[in-house]
Amino acid sequence: MITVECRAGENLLRVAERCGVTVPNAEFCFEGSCCLCEMEVQGGAVEVGYRADTSGADLIRSCICPVPKGRKIVDVNVLSEDNVWGEGVL
């Protein structure tokens, strides 16, 4: 997990890029439609108001999601495909 300082209103995708936590060579749309920027926010999807789906998961589309007011740090959990899907699946 990486903890990074940020400003309220700063774009969460830009915060992740600053930490080096993004999909390499991805061409993000910055409109919330390509879904390449989906990230999990622990307990925070409702707080930021940009939930990516209605299943109850804390997934957000970070390209259109600002850091909420009052937040000065964000914890970014770095996951690899092996962590998510299991070693050798993809």
The rounded distance between the terminal residues' Cα atoms is: 23 Å
Fraction in helix: 10-25%
Number of domains: 1
Strand order of the largest sheet: 1-4
Basic shape? globular
Order of helices and strands: EHEHEEH
List unreliable stretches of 5+ residues.
Answer: none
User: Main sheet, how many strands, which sense, barrel?
Assistant: 2 strands, antiparallel
The Rg value, from CA coordinates, equals 13 Å
Keywords: 2Fe-2S, Iron, Iron-sulfur, Metal-binding
Organism: Riccia fluitans
Protein name: 2Fe-2S ferredoxin-type domain-containing protein
GO molecular function, one term: 2 iron, 2 sulfur cluster binding
What do you see in this structure?
The chain has 90 residues and is of the alpha+beta class. It has one domain. It is 19% helix and 16% strand. The chain contains three helices and four strands; from the N terminus they run βαβαββα. The protein has helices at 12-19, 45-48, 81-85; strands at 2-5, 38-40, 59-61, 73-76. The strands form two sheets. A two-stranded antiparallel ribbon has the order 1-4. A two-stranded antiparallel ribbon has the order 2-3. The chain is globular, with a radius of gyration of 13 Å. The mean pLDDT is 71.
Provide a brief overview of the structure.
The protein is α+β, with helices and mostly antiparallel strands and 90 residues long. The chain is built from 3 helices and 4 strands. The protein starts with a strand and ends in a 5-residue tail after the last helix.
Note the main attributes of this structure.
alpha+beta; two-stranded antiparallel sheet; 19% helix; globular; 90 residues
